[in-house]
Amino acid sequence: MIGPIGREGSEARKRSDQLLRHIIDPVISGLGYSRPLRADRISESGRITRQIIQHIVEDDLVVADLTDSNPNVYYELALRHAVKMPFVQILAGEDPLPFDVADQRTIMVDHRDLDSVSAAKDELARQVEAIKSGIEIDNPLTFAVDVASLRGSENPGDRTQGEILQMLEELRNTSRVTARAVNRSDVTADIDALRHFVEVVSQAGSVVDQDVDNLTNPFTSSAHSRWVKQVKQNMNPFLPYRRDTPTVDPLPSPEEPPF
Questions:
Q1: DSSP state, 256?
Q2: Nearest CA among 203, 192, 201, 139 for reference residue 167
Q3: Nearest-CA neighbor of 22 among 83, 151, 112?
Q4: CA-to-CA distance for 227 and 231, rounded, in angstroms?
Q5: Cα(237)–Cα(57) distance, integer angstroms
Q6: Per-residue DSSP letters for 172-241?
Q7: Residue 126: its pLDDT value, please?
Q8: How high is the pLDDT of residue 44?
Q9: Under DSSP, is residue 29 helix (H, G, I), strand (E, B) or coil?
Q10: DSSP class of residue 64?
Q11: SS3 248
Q12: Side-chain half-sphere of 37: how many Cα atoms within 13 Å?
């Protein structure tokens, strides 16, 4: 287990102890793992930092308590990401998760609420059972490495797939800005264009130059149009220009929304 421990007698230590004692320990031990090991439970002689890192990169499972946004915890979680080993995230607080890990499924718990504790135990058991069944655990670091590998491939199909994945990742990263746009009609038009793109590409099994052109229309926002222009510049060197037979009907020009 990695997480904020705090000094003896502090609120952080009390919360961490309760999470470990009443949620993590009984669930994990009941699913065939050894007793969860937290840094203060390591009794071997030697440098504690080296021992912690060894457990992070070698143990079968890591449970990361992200409460209080502790920088050491995020450093340790990044190490776990780098070795592509299974992990589970838990959060006992109201602080929002940083953007890079916000998309990862996170168990939310109020350690002072018995119903919340019970629900957290059930969800932890489900996630661990999924991990034991062999489900692949994705994370932002491995995704970036895989996309970079595809984009650098000598295979044109792999490069195209890498560019598509990169484009979708950039879209995810800019979605919060789009959501704060003043003009709601811009947001609606942007979403319509993106949905149409996904529909065409999913049916065709490939992407061509005209698909990227169709990501914009007279009602999409200027920010969206600039993003599409950049995407097209990145993808053009290996995109075929057109598809002879349309796979779906073209997206009609939307009427001006009544906003």
A1: P
A2: 201
A3: 112
A4: 6
A5: 39
A6: HHHHHHHHT-S-HHHHHHHHHHHHHHHHHHHHHSS--HHHHHTT--TTS-HHHHHHHHHHHHHHGGG--S
A7: 94
A8: 63
A9: helix
A10: E
A11: coil
A12: 17
Contact 189, 206 (CB under 8 A): no
Q: Please, which residues bridge with residue 7 across strands?
A: none
If the chain, 259 residues long, is cut into consecutive pieces of 10 residues, what is the mean pLDDT of each piece?
A: 89 93 94 89 67 91 93 91 90 77 85 93 94 78 69 77 68 52 57 72 68 75 77 67 60 52
Structure tokens at 177: 């800005």
Between the alpha carbon of residue 114 and those of residues 67, 89, 118, 121, 242, the distances in Å are 18, 20, 6, 11, 59
CA distance 51 to 39: 9
What H or E segment, with its residue span, contains residue 245? none
Helix (H) or strand (E) holding 146: helix 140-151
| Amino acid type, 141 | L
Q: Are 175 and 210 in contact (CB under 8 A)?
A: no
**Separation CA 183–CA 219 (nearest Å):** 11
Q: Using alpha carbons, select from 105, 98, 108 the residue that is nearest to residue 131.
A: 105
Residue reference for tokens 């034991």: 132
Cα distance between residue 206 and residue 208, in whole Å: 7
The pairs formed by 111-115 with CB atoms below 8 angstroms and a separation of 24 or more are 111/15, 111/18, 111/19, 111/22, 111/23
pTM, entire model: 0.58
Tokens 């970079």 sit on residue = 148
| DSSP-assigned letter for residue 8 | T
DSSP secondary structure letter of residue 7: S
